[in-house]
Amino acid sequence: MPLAFHPDETSPLVAALLSDLGIAPGTLELAIDARDEMLGFLVDSFAGDRDRALFGYFRSGASIADSLGQVLRWRFGPPPWREDRMGKLLDFASGYGRVTRFLVRDLPPERVWVADVYADGVRFQEERLGVHGIVSAIRPEDFVCAERFDAILVTSLFTHLPEERFVAWLRVLLGLLAPGGMLAFSAHSPEVLPPGVPMPESGIHFQETSESGSLAKSDYGSTWVTEEFVRSALDRAIGPGASLHRIERGLCNFQDLYLALPEGGVDFAGLDFQGEPQLFLERARLAEGGRRLDLGGWVAARSGVLRAVEAVLDGERLAAVSELEPRPDVAAFLGDERHLRSGWNLSCLLPAGASRTAAVLLLRVVDGRGRPQPLWAGAIESALLAGSRQDGERLYHELLHTQALRDEEKARAAAEAEALRARIQAMEASRFWKLRNAWFAVKRGIGLTEER
């Protein structure tokens, strides 16, 4: 079975990530199948930088598993889960195991099932992770499964379905739940629609575009839905009375996370959810002859709280900041005054002899649980390059703004000049002006003016 990443391969960024997450070497399956489209998508997103793509692959898998783990803890208590609490779990549309490899750390693989339309992906997870596999189907009515599950997790399937498939898959998956079971699935909200694309009154927008290179776009496109649509879809799927809860941007700070339970009246108040923070690196400069690294940017979390932003170099914490600075521009960008205090700045004294190209710099956020969330990693040189790009973009936008102001001033001056010319022409065309000119002509004729 060809691999895109072999467990024996060395990736400094992946090693730094796993160490920061407290995952000991050899305790997580690291193999990535060569046919895994998610890794290919990330390589393209990072302009061919494979090491950063690998970091993004494992980081997003860990983040999604953490979010799903939080809702599982809310519903079934803390792990390890006894069989009488949560016996069987289905990771539906699991791909090649980006998330599943983290889930089996808390639940024995013999109690985990995976399902996907990619038979090779199912077989890869059976062989590498030791889970049970089911080859899924494009059409919900063709899916056959005799098992019943206490929890069904669906990452990034409902983000791709047309309306009737959306409802039909809800019906099928909810029908696979054991009594007291829970379905957790992600969806795109209208907030992340491409600019200029309106949301229809129906509450669902479907486009025949996706990152998949093998599935028909009419079956697997791109979908955005409102919460009202999801509630109506749930009613259409199994009838009224089911419980539904939405966690805004609950997966990777991008996709909404929905919890659906066939029983009514479920109280979600006890779900204390910590979402993945956003962290942006805007500034990176060397000072004091290269002995100090100054970093800055902004950070925000839509759910939960943030305790600190930290910089780590080769596993050693260099600096941390817990007091965030006012950033009205970020609050305006995110559309929420809760994020007014979101600016961070770190000044890091670099160890003597620290390599600008080989040492791994990691930026992480410590969330309200005290858990570190590593969100950026790269060499010091990569941080400096990222900061230079941001400086360049700021300068470019400042120049555009200055040019726009100049163009606006020129247009205003031209408009004022044109208005003045129009007034003069109107005056010269008036009867009073003509009589005035005639009177001055008479005065000049009889020498009553000082004109020469």
Task: Please explain how this structure is put together.
This protein has 2 domains: 3-261, Vaccinia Virus protein VP39 (Rossmann fold, 3-Layer(aba) Sandwich); 278-389, Sandwich (Immunoglobulin-like). Helix content is 35%, strand content 26%. The chain has helices at 12-20, 37-45, 50-76, 100-103, 119-129, 163-174, 227-238, 328-334, 380-429, 431-445, and strands spanning 3-5, 32-33, 89-92, 112-116, 132-135, 149-154, 177-187, 204-207, 222-225, 243-251, 255-261, 278-287, 292-300, 306-313, 316-321, 325-326, 341-349, 360-367, 372-379. The longest helix is centred in the C-terminal third of the chain and has 50 residues, at 380-429. The strands form 5 sheets. Strands 5-4-3-6-7-11-10 form a 7-stranded mixed β-sheet, with helices on both faces. A 4-stranded antiparallel β-sheet has the order 12-13-17-16. Strands 15-14-18-19 form a 4-stranded antiparallel β-sheet. The chain starts with a strand and ends in a 7-residue tail after the last helix. By secondary structure, the chain is of the alpha+beta class.
Q: In a nutshell, what does this entry contain?
A:
The chain is α+β, with helices and mostly antiparallel strands. Helix content is 35%, strand content 26%. The chain has helices spanning 12-20, 37-45, 50-76, 100-103, 119-129, 163-174, 227-238, 328-334, 380-429, 431-445; strands spanning 3-5, 32-33, 89-92, 112-116, 132-135, 149-154, 177-187, 204-207, 222-225, 243-251, 255-261, 278-287, 292-300, 306-313, 316-321, 325-326, 341-349, 360-367, 372-379.
